[in-house]
Design goal:
Elements lengths: L3 E5 L5 H18 L2 E8 L4 H4 L6 H18 L8 E7 L2 H12 L3 E6 L4 H6 L2 H8 L3 E6 L6
Parallel strand pairs: 1-2, 1-4, 2-3, 4-5
Helix pairs in contact: 4-6
C-alpha cells in the first residue's frame, strides 16, 4: 500500500522517536516500502551566530548525518530500502518539503500529548497533518499513553 515512508527523527530524543520509527519499520517490511529518516536542525537566533564557529551549521549537519547513518544501520530493513536526510529550518516546514521532494506517500511521526501551548501555537505534528499532501500517521509516545 505504501511505497515511500518519511520518518522525522529527533536525534536529541531518540526514545521519543522510537514508537514512530517502530511503526514505520513494520509498515515498510509489510509493504516493501522505502524508508527515509529525516532530522531537522533548528535555525539558531542571529544573535548567537557571533559566538559560534563559522562552520557551525556544517558541523551540525555532518554530526546529524553520521548519527542517522548509524541509526539506519541498526534497523532491521535492507540497506537499499533506507535513506537519510538532514535539513535546517522550522521542523514542520522542512518535514513537508522533504515529503514532497522524496515523494512520500506516508509520513510517520511521534507527537507529545497536546497541551494548552499546542492549542495556541500548534505542534509540529499538527502542522504536518494539516498541510501534508500525503497520509500522516501520528504515534503517541508509549510513556505518555493513558
Amino acid at each position: 500500500m505504501f511505497k515511500k515512508i518519511l520518518v522525522p527523527v529527533d536525534l536529541a530524543e531518540l526514545d521519543f522517536s522510537k514508537p514512530a520509527l517502530d511503526a514505520a519499520l513494520s509498515i515498510a517490511r509489510t509493504d516493501g516500502a522505502t524508508l527515509r529518516l529525516l532530522n531537522v536542525l533548528q535555525l539558531l537566533p542571529a544573535m548567537m551566530a557571533e559566538y559560534l564557529p563559522a562552520d557551525f551549521d556544517e558541523i551540525q549537519q555532518k554530526n546529524a548525518s553520521e548519527a542517522l547513518a548509524k541509526l539506519a544501520g541498526g534497523l532491521d530493513l535492507h540497506p537499499a530500502n533506507i535513506s537519510a536526510a538532514v535539513r535546517i529550518g522550522p521542523v514542520h516546514h522542512e518535514v513537508l518539503e522533504e515529503a514532497k521532494e522524496f515523494g512520500a506517500d506516508l509520513i510517520v511521526m511521534s507527537s507529545h500529548d497536546p497541551g494548552l501551548r499546542t492549542y495556541f501555537i500548534g505542534s509540529n505534528a499538527a502542522q504536518v497533518v494539516r498541510h501534508a499532501h500525503c497520509s500522516v500517521m501520528v504515534v503517541r509516545s508509549r510513556a505518555e499513553a493513558p
